[in-house]
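So, read this over?
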Amino acid sequence: MNILDWNALDANAQVRALTRPVQTVAGQTRDSVAGLIEQVRTRGDAALREITQRFDGIAPERFEVSEAEFAAAELAVSAELRIAMQQAADRIDTFHRAGVAQPYSVETAPGVVCEKVIRPIMRVGLYVPAGSAPLPSTALMLGVPAKLAGCREVVLCTPPRKDGTADPAVLVAARLTGVHRVFKIGGAQAIAAMAYGSGSVPSCDKLFGPGNSFVTEAKQQVAQAGAAAIDMPAGPSEVLVIADAGANPAFVAADLLSQAEHGPDSQVLLLSDDAAMIAAVQEQVEIQVAQLSREAIARQALGASLLIKVDSIAQAFEISNRYAPEHLILALRQPRQWLDKVEAAGSVFLGDYTPEALGDYCSGTNHVLPTAGAARAYSGVSVASFQNQISVQAASREGIGGIGPCALTLARAEGLGAHANAVALRLGVVP
C-alpha cells in the first residue's frame, strides 16, 4: 500500500487518489457487457449456454436447480453452518422488520384525504455472486427483506461451480428465506436473463445484488434500457477506515484486508492524522496478508489502495464524504461523537470492536450497499427496496370546492387549459 500526504497533493492528484480501479477501465467493460446482454436478449437460453461454456466451462441443459439438487445441498451443509445462517437470518429479519414503512392517511383539507399505500414488487431477481468465493450471506441479505416485503415471485441467479452444480450453502440460504427458484447462471449474462427473460429464466421487474464490475455495468445498462429497475450500483467492494492514534493497528490492517480479499478490483483506504499509526498499519498489513489463503487477490487490491496522512480527523471526514465509501469504519476513541460528520457512506462501523465483517454476516444490517461513490445518493438494500409506495387521494364535493380554486389558479398560470377545465366543470365555473 502506498502512503500519501493528502495536503502535499495538488487538486488533480487528490482526484486521482480517490479514483476507484474499475473507473479506469469503464469503457472496455461497457462494450463487453453490451455484447453479452444483446446475445441473451435476442437468443435467450441458447446464448446463455454458449456464454456459460465460455466463462464457466460448462453448458448445462437445465439452468434451474432441481428439487434433488436442493436436497443434496441440505445434506452437504454442516449443522454448524446451517445454524449460523439461521442465526444471521434472524438478526437480519429483526433489523429490517423494525424499519418497515407503514401506510398512512391524512386529511390535507376538509373533504380531501391523501394516503400512502404500500405494495410489494411482483417479481424480483436476486443475484448472488460465487465467482472466486460463494456468498451464501448475500442470499440471506436479499432473501430476508424480499420475504418481509411480500414479493409474489422471487428468482435467484448464482454462478455454477465447475461440476455444474450451485454452491450448496447458497441453496440452503435461499431456502431459509423462502426462495425456491434458483438458476445456475452468473455474471452479466445472469443480469440480462433476469431483465429480459431467456426462456427458462423469467423476466423480473427489479434486480438486486452485488457483483463485479461486469455485473454492476450490466445492471446499469438494463436499467437505462428500461428492461428492469435495479437496487443500486453495487460493484467491487471497498472500505475506508478513519483511525486515530489510539486505534489498534492489527485491527485496522485486518479490516483493510477483509475487503481487499474480495477481489483484485476492490479498494481499501486508511485515513489517519497519526504518522506512527499509518506506519504500524502498513507493517501489520504485510504480516497479515502473507497468511491469507487469498493472498494473491488481496495483494492485487492493495496495489490500488492507499494509506493517507491527514492534518486532522475532521479533514478525514471531509475526504471520506467526498469518496462516499461503501463501508466506513471509525476506529476512533469516541466514534459516536463523530457520527454526525458522516454525510455519505453505505454502512458505518463504530469503534475498535465492530469489524466490517460483522455487517457482512450477522449483525443484522444489510451488506448489499452502494459502491463507487453511489452512497452520495443511494442507500443500502431494505424492505422498502422491494416495495412500491403508491399515493392515493379522494376529494368530496366539499373537498374540491375548497381546494379547486387553488388548482384553477395554478393551471391557468401554467397555460394548461384542460387541467383547468377538469376542475372548473366540477366547480360549475368558467375555466
